[in-house]
Amino acid sequence: MPFRKVTWSETEQRVSIYNWGCNFACLGCSYKLLRPQHDKWVRPERIEELLAHYRPRKVTFLGGEATTNPDLPRLLTFAKQQVGAETWLGHTNGSKLPLPDLDGANVSLKAFSPAKHLEYTGYPAEPIYANFRAGFEAGLKMKASTVFIPNFVDLDEIEAMARFLSALSPDLPFHIMGYVPVPGTTWRRPTNEEMQRAIEIAQRHLPLVTYSHLTPEEMRNWQARSTRWASVQIA
Fold first, then answer.
1. How far is CA 13 from CA 81, 222, 231, in A?
2. Contact 233/5 with Cβ under 8 angstroms?
3. 141 dihedral zone (left: phi>0; alpha: psi -120 to 50; beta)
4. Are strands 104-108 and 86-92 parallel, antiparallel or unpaired?
5. What is the distance, to the nearest Å, from the Cα of residue 226 to the centroid of all Cα atoms in its chain?
6. Which of the chain's termini has less CB crowding within 10 Å, N or C?
7. DSSP result, the chain
8. Distance (Å, rounded) from C-alpha 66 to C-alpha 74?
């Protein structure tokens, strides 16, 4: 199945491979703001050629949800076994973990309570947390993130996620993103004070807590905010 695009970062020695589509229907999905173009496609054979040419140190798969692409296992195996790259899911909803030839995953935890998770995503919460645990126990390098939505995925949800992660390992990184309003929702962006409170609550359980609190314009241009994500499109 084709992928949407492929990028190369010279400074990071990283190839990033972007999928299209998702098996979740998240009400506050940021792709409603990003509106990525997907009128051209890249076949897996072409991606293998690019990986063999660039010989990246790291190969990152992103989305939509990269694990919905049936050619992901093929490319993971090629990147890991033929190129010798470290393989990552740059972001994933965690619905299909762990995977062979995958070194690490950054899992976006949508909500902790089953009712809220189902309402927000259309998908049950229990398999996500079970998969996160399975990935951790399989030795994957795991990271977690969540979107702080005042009065929905609120402070109690964030603390429950932090407790879950801490029970696995207090060294797990946890990133909290302030919600950026998208069309079709009534939720608001958190205040600076609310963001600080969310961070403090998570840090009760985890020392490695980071955050981002972007405006809609900053969200649309997120790659320009760090040289870490500076890249050129190669397919």
1. 17, 20, 10
2. yes
3. beta
4. parallel
5. 17
6. N
7. --BSEEEEETTTTEEEEE----S---TT-THHHH----SS-B-HHHHHHHHHHH--SEEEEESS-GGG-TTHHHHHHIIIIII--EEEEEEE-STT---TT--EEEEE---SSHHHHHHHHSS-SHHHHHHHHHHHHTT-EEEEEEEEBTTTB-HHHHHHHHHHHHHH-TT--EEEEE----TT----PPPHHHHHHHHHHHHTT-S-EEEE---HHHHHTGGGG-GGG--EE--
8. 12
Q: Which among 38, 41, 32 has a CA at the least distance from the CA of 2?
A: 41
For the record, the structure tokens of 160 come out as 């429950």
Distance CA 66, CA 96 (A): 10
Look up residue 69 and give its two tokens: 């692409």
In a structure prediction context, what are the per-residue pLDDT tens digits for the chain, which is 235 residues long? 789 999 999 999 999 999 988 999 999 998 777 655 556 799 999 999 999 999 999 999 998 899 999 999 999 999 999 999 999 999 999 999 999 999 999 999 999 999 999 999 999 999 999 999 999 999 999 999 999 999 999 999 999 999 999 999 999 999 999 999 988 899 999 999 999 999 999 999 999 999 999 877 777 665 655 566 688 999 9
